[in-house]
Amino acid sequence: MMHNTEIPYILDVENLGKQFQLHLVDGRVITPFANVSFKVRQGHLFMISGKSGAGKTTILKCIYRTYLTNQGHIWYDSREFGRIDIASADENSISRLREQELGFCSQFLKVLPRVPALEVTAEPLIKCGVPRDEALEEAARWLGRLGIEESRWLASPITFSGGEQQRLNLARAFIAAPRILLLDEPTASLDAVSKSIVLDMIREATEKGITILTVSHDIAAIQELADDTFWLEA
Ligand SMILES: Nc1ncnc2c1ncn2[C@@H]1O[C@H](COP(=O)(O)OP(=O)(O)OP(=O)(O)O)[C@@H](O)[C@H]1O
Description:
single chain; alpha/beta; Rossmann fold; five-stranded parallel β-sheet; four-stranded antiparallel β-sheet; 27% strand; binds adenosine-5'-triphosphate; nucleotide-binding; ATP hydrolysis activity; ABC_transpr_LolD-like; ABC_transporter-like_ATP-bd
């Protein structure tokens, strides 16, 4: 077994800071956090904790580059480009990383209407070049594992309950086995059975070497599995 110190860092967040300008209010600037630094080892489950509103989700969104950062660096040891600063990389590199290496699982569902759940789940695999039939079969496997009834697979996920939408988001995030997976409150609206399935999925993924960063208020459940916890001070 490898000692912690022998496992390389895959992500090195250095002096990260984010500001939002509230254009629709009075133009004021808010700074949820500044000078945030942490390092994440490959294949670890890394938990970001802290008070509500401290900026935990914002950090995940900066790493996925949904948000541009205002300060600092997000050094990522990518398979395709080597060491790259996600904070300043060009859009093409970011698209490529999102397709091949980075996954994000949001608490909320954002999908096109009328696309069936099975297709929505298979989409990340199809984008990676997996043949459609194979991708749909794999999608069925994940939806089944997460307890989404087969009768719902051809419906639009817009009609799903909150917990079903969350499980579909998780299926979509795990299906393509990215190198780094960012999970925003992965167990928030789940019952006990679904929660334990998700915790098993997280455990299996890290065992395969996938690095997971998660934000969760379910400290007891996640911390038991987490290799490291970063406390974001408000
Ligand atoms: N797009 C945005 N525009 C303006 N302000 C934002 C935006 N996104 C986040 N914020 C603000 O940044 C702060 C941090 O939000 P964030 O969602 O990252 O917190 P959090 O720590 O994840 O909170 P919670 O635990 O409640 O989910 C909040 O004050 C929020 O209002």
